[in-house]
Amino acid sequence: MHKNQKTLFIFTFSIISILFFIKCNGNSKKTKENTADTKCQHCGMFSEKYPKWHVKMEMEDKTTKWTCSPRCMLLIVQNHKKGTKKIIQPKEIWVKDYYTLKEIDAKKAFFVSKSDVFGAMGADFVPFSSEKSAQDFAKEHKSSQENIFTFDQITLEIIKKALE
Ligand SMILES: [Zn+2]
């Protein structure tokens, strides 16, 4: 009887430990922002490591996909236009304003390239909600007015030049 009680105690303790472990693990993975697969859809890096830079893409099928940085997102969009690489066409794209870190609609954002600020993958297109912020940033960070683009102005050629 005594032996049985001991076994039961060990068994119960093990179950509680396992449940506790599962719960902790589950909690750390499931944040509000990153519930789906958070790997960058372009380069494969984990986007949640770069909360200042990562880009959220809402897809047609209502799933959420991520890239680690604006440059990876822009490459996806441009490659899709050319029909060359993996076909992903996001319905909505949310980047983060570099100054405020607020989520902004990428299609209304202003992007600054060729600055001395590096993103998750190195040289990047730094997003801003206003043209004024983009201009101020370009002045402060060794870029220039010619390197400010709206979403629609950015082509594959511009990206290649910016990442040289
Ligand atoms: Zn990436």
Structural account:
This protein is of the alpha+beta class. The protein has 2 domains: 1-30; 36-162, no CATH class. It contains 4 helices and 7 strands. The protein has helices at residues 2-29, 70-82, 131-140, 156-162; strands spanning 55-59, 64-67, 90-96, 103-105, 110-112, 126-128, 148-150. The strands form 2 sheets. A 4-stranded antiparallel β-sheet has the order 2-1-3-4. Strands 6-5-7 form a 3-stranded antiparallel β-sheet, covered by helices on one side. A hairpin with a 4-residue loop joins strand 1 (55-59) and strand 2. The N and C termini lie far apart (75 Å). 32% of the residues are buried. The structure holds zinc ion. Zinc ion binds at residues 40, 42-43, 45, 67-69, 72, 121.
Brief digest:
The protein is an alpha+beta fold. The chain is built from four helices and seven strands.
Instruction: Note the total helix count.
Output: 4
Total domains, how many? Answer: 2
Mean pLDDT: 83
Spans with pLDDT under 50 lasting ≥5 residues?
22-32
Task: Please give the share of residues in helix.
Answer: 25-40%
How much is the radius of gyration in Å?
Answer: 22 Å
How large is the share of residues in beta strands? Answer: 15-25%
Gross morphology is: elongated
SS-derived structural category: alpha+beta
Q: How far from one another are the termini?
A: 75 Å
- What is the string of helix and strand elements? HEEHEEEEHEH
**Largest sheet: spatial strand order:** 2-1-3-4
